[in-house]
Amino acid sequence: TCDTGDQQTTAAVHLKEAAATIVERLKDVATYEGEDAVFECRLSRETAQDAQWFLGDVPLQSNEMNEIRVQGTRHSLILRKVTLEDCGSITFKVGQHSSAA
């Protein structure tokens, strides 16, 4: 607000969150049946944007078989005690960006 005594004007500042990009992409993982498979990627910055993990086309959530972690800019997925049915493409998506392994 600018107030000169007999006149006043007001303006506002609006911010938009800049899109995060993937700076460290997923890497392929080879492991034995019954062991854990760990996938990690790193973003350009911490973000409130929705990040999502997929096995094939199926979105994953944290549960007893999948652990999803976010530590600052590092996002990780742990597939617990993998089976042959877990073979396939893992994809991480944030905003318009994605990485697959």
TrEMBL record:
What Gene3D superfamilies does the record tag this protein with? Immunoglobulins
Ranges for the Immunoglobulin I-set domain?
21-95
- Recite the UniProt keywords alphabetically: Cytoplasm, Disulfide bond, Phosphoprotein
Q: InterPro entries annotated for this entry?
A: Ig-like_dom_sf, Ig-like_fold, Ig_I-set, Obscurin/Obscurin-like_Reg
> Which Gene Ontology cellular component terms are annotated?
cytoplasm
Q: List where in the cell it is found.
A: Cytoplasm
Give the protein's recorded name.
OBSCN protein
What organism does the record attribute this protein to? Answer: Polioptila caerulea
Q: Which gene encodes it?
A: Obscn_2
